[in-house]
């Protein structure tokens, strides 16, 4: 996990250092945009702060600002696009009294993150989303927790309005209930009725790569593989690789950008997976398993999947795609 924290005063920098101390397992970068002295552990931000903000939005890196909501609102305004894809943005005051999720509270997890940081700082999380305030059902949170893709985001408002009015929400799964009486339909098939359509994520990826491959290089290889399968990132549940890649920055960046769980497996478990795989004697000699991408994709399905795309090699990156079989 990676966070980007930005402050504008030395007091704000002290808050960043407290957060870094409270979350030692998070790769939390702290920046100060100020002429004030820069404390140890904080990087002085040169140039336009919006460049850093834009990179965070591009890579889906959560942004935590120490300062005023008004300033933050103006800074992030050029980058705000869609509630389902915007990066999480939080604001914390310099006295550490309040932690405020400003953007992507549900889909991006900003509300949940605000709660964790507030607990660590003994602050108050200021949650303003209506369904949370009223303790009502939130369709976008349900979709995220259930690993479902929101296929028609306009349906969220209708479900939220009904939920806030205290009425029950009717959910239809595939064809087991008439869609015309449902508020939410969970189905792989296109839903044409006036309901919120949630699609199951039926695919996983297995990825292998040389050391130091960038997000762009890995992303290019994955995109080509997905295009060959006629699917998109929204259809992917998670991706996996060899345990030696657990700290590979390009893979971590891919996980963050597309909000995909990233799992790694030891070589002996991968080698024990049964199946017909594209074996490489060289790879086995190097890491102890003859194929990373195909074996990790199948292992990630826990025996409930099959390969729909065997190993695709592109510029030092290998990708395989497996589909859950129900």
Can you put this structure into words, describing what you see?
By secondary structure, the chain is α/β, with parallel strands linked by helices. It has three domains: 2-128, Rossmann fold (3-Layer(aba) Sandwich); 135-200, 3-Layer(aba) Sandwich (Udp-n-acetylmuramoylalanyl-d-glutamate--2,6- Diaminopimelate Ligase, Chain: A, domain 1); 203-324, CobE/GbiG C-terminal domain (Nucleotidyltransferase, domain 5, 2-Layer Sandwich), CATH 3.30.420.180. Helix content is 34%, strand content 25%. The protein contains twelve helices and 16 strands. It has helices at 10-22, 49-59, 69-76, 110-121, 130-134, 139-145, 155-164, 215-229, 249-258, 267-271, 281-287, 293-300, and strands spanning 2-7, 27-32, 43-44, 63-66, 89-92, 98-103, 124-125, 148-150, 171-173, 184-186, 196-200, 203-209, 236-242, 262-265, 305-314, 317-324. The strands form three sheets. Strands 3-2-1-4-5-6-7 form a seven-stranded mixed beta sheet, sandwiched between helices. Strand 5 (89-92) and strand 6 (98-103) form a beta hairpin. The longest helix has 15 residues, at 215-229. The two termini are 32 Å apart. The model has no long low-confidence stretch (mean pLDDT 91).
